[in-house]
Design goal:
Strand content of chain A: under 5%
Number of helices of chain A: 10
Oligomer: heterodimer
Number of strands of chain A: 0
CATH class of chain B: Mainly Alpha
Helix content of chain A: over 70%
Largest interface: A-B, 56 and 57 residues
Largest sheet of chain A: none
Shape of chain B: elongated
Order of helices and strands of chain A: HHHHHHHHHH
Strand content of chain B: under 5%
Mean pLDDT of chain B: 86
Mean pLDDT of chain A: 87
Structural class of chain A: mainly alpha
Number of helices of chain B: 10
Number of domains of chain B: 1
CATH topology of chain B: MetI-like fold
Order of helices and strands of chain B: HHHHHHHHHH
Distance between the termini of chain A: 29 Å
CATH architecture of chain B: Orthogonal Bundle
Distance between the termini of chain B: 30 Å
CATH class of chain A: Mainly Alpha
């Protein structure tokens, strides 16, 4: 229990909530890193996954790529990019994008690929073009899985964005890395609690988002969360 | 390249350490997940509360967990293994439940009609049918665990992660790249072993192609323990 006592003591000290090293500022930085990495990863992985699922060509390549992507050590990639760019301040971006791509890619691919063939037939029979079938049938039906991929990726990125602090940037990881450096247990515990709370918030946000955007007829089947 | 050959015994040692630190937690995670999954598949009201707990654990930053655990288990292998076990559990537990739920009702009824009791049905019918889904989860857990060990380097116990920190200090790219490549190779080897194990354990799927693809997919889709790095 002492973990929570330490975390609580650190979190409830008013001085930790002000200024550029305060919790609100670090939280905003952390959200910023997560958002930038997620937008880039989604721009790359969503169209690719959807397109490959639609044409059902190249599926093997996607799965293999995702597998290798999962085994990429994020810390190693971070240090490699950092050293290669002689210490660029954006070095954190590459490993986070690499981390987010596999779940988005695999889920959008499998989601679109798994759409019932009868549904697609019916849509084509109603006179829809291949494009219309994709955007009016396949993508909406695949939406629960696509969102699951985005959610998994976001939670991973939130937890992992802490590494930005390792190369001297901000975000909630500062508390964990700095606390480790000076043996301030409370600071590490407080930082960890904040990261977990942010991850939970993301989880709830995605559940809410799914309510908003997933077609009503699909929600019953999509009880995955 | 010459650096690699000159240091081959160190690299072999680090690779072995990395494999050990990664695979023991996967085994422990499996040993916990299977009974937990069986219980939650049987009493389904338990599933969603347990799932929300494992999802929270899944979001814990690995580095924070390592540091927090130092206070309890010190700078030992255990400190690195506990978080990896937790992540394995988070990935594997839903796979076990999905796998058991994928057993077709007629199959279950046929087993009952043949006089199988609860335990025999579990051991000889339900668990074998769940195996492909469980192994799909196991593959993700194993690959992630192997790559996550390197974060332990930040507290001094990181298998191949040692090459990252050392390479950074010496500004020596070859060493960092070697570390990344060895981790990927180790992960691919472990993954291949699991695929072969699945073929061996589920001979009935080899031929005409079973259609238990969907639950396997669902297990694959969960992605790797987010917890990610630090």
């Amino acid at each position: 229990m002492s973990f929570f006592t330490f975390a609580w003591q650190w979190l409830t000290l008013a001085s930790h909530w002000h200024g550029s090293a305060g919790v609100p500022a670090r939280l905003i930085e952390h959200i910023e890193y997560t958002a930038i990495a997620m937008v880039i990863a989604a721009v790359i992985a969503l169209p690719a996954g959807v397109a490959i699922g639609h044409t059902s060509r190249g599926g093997f390549a996607i799965i293999s790529l995702a597998n290798i992507g999962r085994s990429l050590p994020t810390l190693g990639l971070l240090i490699l990019v950092f050293v290669l760019t002689s210490g660029a301040s954006w070095a954190w971006l590459i490993p986070l994008v690499a981390l987010a791509i596999p779940p988005i890619l695999v889920n959008s691919y499998e989601g679109v690929l798994g759409v019932d063939a009868d549904l697609k037939d019916a849509a084509a029979g109603m006179g829809m073009t291949s494009r219309q079938v994709l955007f009016r049938v396949e993508v909406p039906v695949a939406l629960p899985l696509i969102l699951l991929g985005l959610r998994t990726a976001t939670i991973q990125v939130v937890a992992t964005a802490t590494i930005a602090a390792y190369i001297g940037i901000g975000g909630l990881g500062r508390y964990i890395i700095d606390g480790l450096a000076v043996n301030n247990y409370g600071e590490v515990a407080g930082g960890a609690v904040l990261v977990v709370l942010l991850a939970l918030l993301v989880q709830f946000a995605f559940v809410g988002l799914a309510r908003l955007v997933v077609p009503a007829g699909l929600r019953k089947q999509a009880q995955q969360s | 390249m010459s650096w690699v050959f000159a240091n081959i015994s160190m690299l072999a040692h680090l690779t072995g350490q990395n494999a050990y630190l990664a695979l023991v937690p996967v085994l422990i995670g499996l040993v916990i997940s299977v009974p937990l999954g069986i219980v939650c598949a049987r009493w389904s009201w338990l599933y969603s509360p347990v799932l929300s707990i494992t999802s929270v654990l899944y979001a814990l930053p690995a580095l924070a967990l390592f540091v927090v655990l130092i206070a309890y288990t010190g700078l030992t292998d255990t400190t690195v293994m506990i978080p990896l076990t937790v992540y394995t559990l988070a990935v594997l537990f839903p796979s076990v439940v999905d796998g058991l739920r994928s057993v077709p009702e007629p199959v279950r009824q046929a087993a009952v009609a043949m006089g199988f009791g609860t335990w025999r049905r579990l051991a000889f019918v339900e668990l074998p049918i769940a195996t492909p889904v469980v192994i799909a989860g196991l593959r993700i857990a194993t690959v992630s665990s192997i790559s996550l060990v390197s974060v332990g380097e930040l507290i001094g116990i990181g298998g191949l992660g040692y090459l990252f920190e050392d390479g950074q200090q010496r500004d020596f790219t070859t060493e960092i790249v070697t570390g990344i490549v060895l981790i990927i190779v180790l992960a691919l080897v472990a993954d291949t072993v699991l695929v072969l194990a699945r073929r061996w354990l589920t001979p009935w799927q080899r031929g005409a192609g079973g259609d238990s693809r969907l639950p396997i997919l669902r297990a694959t889709l969960r992605g790797r323990p987010g917890a990610g790095l630090t």
